[in-house]
């Protein structure tokens, strides 16, 4: 597809996990399509595993990689960071400023607004990736963040939501979007749809993801403990990932006397980690559109997951297989059932994989986001074959019910 080249700058606070995977795939596709792309991210976060991913992307970035100190919480240091980012972005003369996550989105909308006042023709695009939308609107912190989101919404030209659920959460907690909006699912490459076989010495269960309570590794460990109490033997399990609560989870394993059954591996590529165990468990308490679910389903690995965020949209007609988030009893029962019925789990994995490829592809993800950029810049796309729906929000209504149920549980 022939496109008019654009200068695109992505900004994210922490270049880790699914949010960086999204940026990496998008930036790569945009660079290959002939656009000049740059990336700005925090200089103080990221493990060696995460930083390798950033370094691998850097040669594709015609507008370069820039790293500045960025705080997770709102602090006075944000003023210094904003000034440094402004000077850098001003000199890049971008056509598109695309912020990812709450902090990245705040920076690009504030800086983009200043640039527009100074005569630069830049469009400000924001993708929450969950972020501040995970906060409970009935709590003080949630009200603060959602009020800020509402104010920044007035400085936004384009909004990208990675799931119907995320779009519904924005409408419910922040308000009706003022900007041109699209729902664009995260995507995988064709190579990722090849099934992965486990090693002969594979364990029973794999947890892979960030080591923080939002993702539920504490529930995973407790479920292993419950099975051991019931059967007298703990399932063999692997924990793959990094995060701020790792030491606490290691202490949980010691306290439950699971050290011989549970192995911590640090961060690994998903398809390599899948070989470690027969079943993948994703016990998240909150999500937007998690890549690990997409990757597990595409690899045809048996999966136990919770009914949060955009996960039901991935499971589609099989969403009745999902379990209630934060419910240790139901997680334990689901893991026991997986141990008892490996053939059924394998069959369900095959069914799930068969309906994934057309909807969740990097090609479609890139095309729909680039089409949004072009519409903001008044550029007519050369090929409308996979353009987004007119308003991109056709799935919000059915997501509202799930959002309401989730809010009622909070």
From TrEMBL:
Residues 198-344 form the Glycosyl transferase family domain. This is Glycosyltransferase family 4 protein. It holds the Pfam family Glycos_transf_1. The lineage of its organism: Bacteria, Pseudomonadati, Pseudomonadota, Alphaproteobacteria, Hyphomicrobiales. Residues 16-189 form the Glycosyltransferase subfamily 4-like N-terminal domain. SUPFAM superfamilies: UDP-Glycosyltransferase/glycogen phosphorylase. InterPro entries: Glyco_trans_1, Glyco_trans_4-like_N.
